[in-house]
Amino acid sequence: MPFGLGIGELLIILAVLLLVFGAKRLPELGGALGRGIREFKTSVRDIEGELKRPTDAQQRELQRPAPPPPATTEPRSGDATHTSAPPPAPPEPR
């Protein structure tokens, strides 16, 4: 049973509630309690969804294409075709 209560304890609680609120108000209270619990669960699901969803800035960053690499005018270190020194002179005939 919920909260470790037995059937006898639950019957006593229901009898006290019936005496305090009356037979007409008891179903209304149960309905209101059910609606409140349902709204609470819906709110918790909405908040969890908001936390799991990426923000607008993150979505724009994911959708943006990668920028092209920067253009350089200097030769790269391993590039043999772009050297600044003149080619060596051919050997002179003897």
- C-alpha end-to-end distance: 112 Å
Mean pLDDT: 80
Low-confidence stretches: none
How many H/I helical runs? 2
Q: What is the string of helix and strand elements?
A: HH
Tell me, briefly, the overall form: rod-shaped
Largest sheet: none
Number of strands: 0
- DSSP helix fraction: 55-70%
- The whole-angstrom Rg is 39 Å
Strand content: under 5%
The structure class reads mainly alpha
Keywords:
94 residues; 57% helix; 2 helices
What does this structure look like?
The longest helix is centred in the N-terminal third of the chain and has 46 residues, at 7-52. The chain has a domain at 24-64. The protein is mainly alpha-helical and 94 residues long. It has helices spanning 7-52, 56-63. It has 2 helices and no strands.
Summarize the SSE layout with pairings:
Layout: H1 7-52, H2 56-63
Short structural description:
With 94 residues, the protein is mainly α. It has helices at residues 7-52, 56-63.
